[in-house]
Design brief:
367 residues; alpha+beta; Rossmann fold; OB fold (Dihydrolipoamide Acetyltransferase, E2P); 6-stranded mixed β-sheet; 5-stranded antiparallel β-sheet; 20 strands; 25% helix; elongated; binds adenosine-5'-triphosphate; ATP-binding; ABC-type transporter activity
Length: 367
């Protein structure tokens, strides 16, 4: 059992900088929670607080029901995998993996057995006699994970463990870590700035910005119902388009209007927006809600949007269009790879009015 609770946790560094502000977050036992956010948002600080490598300025931190505010790192039954892997260069892989257990005074035969078992699990048995410098990046990453799992900790903390790997290895390692999480049945807290990594690995994702928690939810909920403009813009690639807009009542129907668009609202959104009256709002459109009419799915009722194509990126399974609207606003569309667009031409795309997001212009909260 290892649940984790951050209860009104604040971390103010000695220079007065507040890296984490009033964080309230519970990680359930056996959960794979991903902390995600841009550089400097406080992810690593949160992880270091949990590991006992930093002290809290305010609040309480619990592992299970035990307050660990002053509990030394070594007594927290936590293992951490760092971005740099922090392997000891003069030790072999075996010695690196065995080191923590030796410090704990575990008998040699037990150590050997646990290291072999972990090495088998991670497919690094043939590497046990090598030194870190004789390993590839992917192999080093596995050794760092191996060093953490031999100790059978109650919680794994991982700080961007895949950021040194090339794109292909990263995809493979992502799947391996997800599998490892299922096999071990242990609580994982995983830090990344990469929203794709967060979406693919986390059972839940906590989005941080400037030391403040923005939203905690499953990947799908974060994507479908972002709490505010920051989360909406951070989750999803290419990012959501934001356009200045106005709510307007036309013939008894609430619509959202921009310089280039006039969209009806679906009944649920119209209900939520009803209180906003004739107000300025921010309209959010995901790139995949803009369609090439020649390749649109089924019977979608699309609202036309005229734009000039400025860049076309062919990705094989899709094409990304960068467009400029008549009012100078720029938008990005994700369209079928079969779409035939050329730079400089003016095109008419279709907008799916069922997939519209609205945000309060002042608070930036979702409507
Ligand atoms: P990255 O993705 O770049 O690693 P992060 O989200 O992990 O970023 P943190 O390392 O937690 O961010 O840092 C959060 C903020 O706290 C940053 O603005 C950083 O400059 C600041 N910070 C970190 N460590 C200290 C320190 N020891 N003293 C003062 N400020 C610090």
């Amino acid at each position: 059992m290892a649940s984790i609770t951050f209860d009104h946790v604040t971390k103010r560094y000695d220079n007065g900088f507040v890296a984490v502000e009033d964080l309230n977050l519970t990680v359930a036992d056996r959960e794979f929670l991903v902390l995600v956010g841009p550089s400097g948002c406080g992810k690593t600080t949160s992880l270091r607080l949990l590991a006992g490598l930093e002290t809290l300025s305010q609040g309480n931190l619990y592992i299970d029901d035990r307050c660990v505010n002053t509990l030394p790192a070594k007594d927290r039954n936590i293992a951490m995998v760092f971005q740099s892997y922090a392997l000891y260069p003069h030790m072999t892989v075996f010695e690196n993996m065995a080191f923590g257990l030796s410090l704990q005074g575990v008998p040699k035969s037990t150590i050997a057995q646990q290291v072999r078992q972990a090495a088998q699990q991670l497919d690094i048995e043939p590497l046990l006699d090598r030194k870190p410098k004789e390993l590839s990046g992917g192999q080093r990453q596995r050794v760092a994970v191996g060093r953490a799992i031999v100790r059978h900790p109650a919680v794994f903390l991982m700080d961007e463990p895949l950021s040194n790997l090339d794109a292909k290895l990263r995809v493979q390692a992502r799947a391996e870590l997800s599998k490892l999480h299922r096999q071990l049945g242990t609580t994982f807290v995983y830090v990344t700035h990469d929203q794709v990594e967060a979406m693919t690995m986390g059972t839940r994702i906590a989005v941080l910005n400037q030391g403040i928690l923005q939203q905690v939810a499953s990947p799908q909920v974060l994507y479908d119902r972002p709490h505010n403009v920051f989360v909406a813009g951070f989750m999803g690639s290419p990012a959501m388009n934001f356009l200045p807009a106005r709510l307007r009542l036309e013939a008894g129907e609430l619509r959202v209007v921009t310089a280039s668009l006039n969209l009806p609202l679906d009944p649920d959104l119209a209900d939520r927006a009803a209180g906003y009256g004739d107000r300025e709002v921010i309209l959010g459109l995901r790139p995949e809600s803009l369609y090439d009419p020649a390749h649109q799915p089924g019977n979608l009722a699309l609202v036309p949007l005229k734009a000039e194509v400025t860049v076309v990126e062919h990705m094989g399974n899709e094409a990304i269009l960068y467009l400029t609207l008549a009012d100078g606003q720029e938008v990005v569309a994700r369209v079928s790879p079969r779409s035939q667009f050329t730079v400089g031409e003016t095109v008419t795309l279709g907008v799916d009015s069922q997939r519209v997001y609205l945000f309060d212009q002042t608070t930036e909260l979702a409507i």
